[in-house]
Structure formats: C-alpha cells, structure tokens
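Async update (no meeting this week)

Hi team, since we skipped the sync, here's where things stand on the single-chain job. The sequence we agreed to prioritize is pasted below, unchanged from the tracker. I ran it this morning and attached the output directly underneath so nobody has to dig for it. Comments welcome in thread, and please keep replies under the output.
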Amino acid sequence: MGHSRILFKLSGEALAGQAGFGVDSGRVSEITSEIAELAKSDVQVALVVGGGNFFRGVSASDDGLTRVSVDYMGMLATIINAVVLRDHISACGVSANILSAINVPPITELCSPTTAIKLLESGHVVIFAAGTGSPYFSTDTAAALRAIEIEAELVAKATKVDGVYNKDPVCFPDAQRYEKISYAEVLTAGLAVMDQSAVAMCRENDLPLVVFDLNVRGNIKKVAAGENIGTLIHAAE
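Output:
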C-alpha cells in the first residue's frame, strides 16, 4: 500500500557522491529527479537533510571548539545542502521550499508545522533544514520530529546499505539483513540504524521507519509505493 505523505532523511554525504566532500551536482540531480517525479505523482514529499558533506560536528569538537558551537556549524551546513536540493528540485519543475529551525532570510522561512502542511498540500516539496535548532540533537532526531509534526505516514532513511543488519555487513560477510524489525528490538540490541532518541520517538508515535539503499535508482519511488525493500521498523505485532 502506498503512502500519500512521506518524509525522507538524506545524509549530507549522499549529496557528495564518490568525492565524499562538498556537492556532486550529477549525483544531486539523480536524487532530486526521483524526488520531483514522486512529487509529480501527487505524493506529498518532505526532506530532512544532514550536513556531513561539509562539517562533522562531533569530531570537530576535539579541535578546540565547544560542542554547542560545532553543532550550530553543522546546522548551517544543512542549510547549504537545503539550498542545493531546492534549486535542483525546482529545475525539475516542482516547487520546493526550505523551512529552517534557524531562520536565515531571505534564504529560508522559519520552520512551522502549519506552514509545512499547507505547502505539502499545495504540491510543494518541503525541505527541513538546521535540524531541531538545538545543539546535542542529530538530524535523525530532527527527521523523526518533523515527520511527527507534519503527520507523515512514514519516515524513510536513505543510506548506502540495503537495510538493517544484525552486525556490520562491511566487516562481517555473514551479517543478516532484517526484512522487518520492531522498535523495541532495535533499541534493545543497540543497532546502528538511527539515534536511539529518534527510534524512541517513532515508537511513541507509532510512526513506521524504513531504512533503504539510496544508491539503487528507483528505490525512492518503491519506498513511497510501499514495496518491500530495505528494512521496515515498526511496532511489534
């Protein structure tokens, strides 16, 4: 069964492509063309984007900067990425708006659930930037929060692997992928899916979460259509 309103969590690294830093316009075009195509099919699409292609906050806190300062610097990096996404989506013929937890006029508007829902219902793609606006919270937590605020039917975390595994598939060839797993199992096992606070928020609000491979073209549309790809994290049956 398909979803009519979905929030995708994109990492900053996804926009960097093979370079690992900055923005790969070709890769961004590939991602945004799929997002635009989905929006044109009357699916309401919201995005939360990270900033790791420009700035890794926690590691930078070892270089003499305070954790609060580097977290705010990371938030600013997400705004840069949001501008990139907005312009590429607009180039595909779909209106896109940036709603930021830290308002930077004239680039962004201040984040508001009411505004976001109105834009989504009007066919605009909404890009949430600057995380939650508070230090010590990741963009994973921001994705869960924004999805709850806009009453999304699903959070879809785009990654470079095809789901959630019982152990790191890069290091362990015998790692097994979960097709479905409960929030409680993710939290108890400490699986590195999203921040535990984000998973807990999804559980408390009965908000399903899918982890999928962004590098396979067509997966964005498949996730929105409810096809069985990646790993579904949901309430225990």
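Quick observations from my side:
The longest helix spans residues 67-91.
The mean pLDDT is 93.
Reply here if anything looks off.
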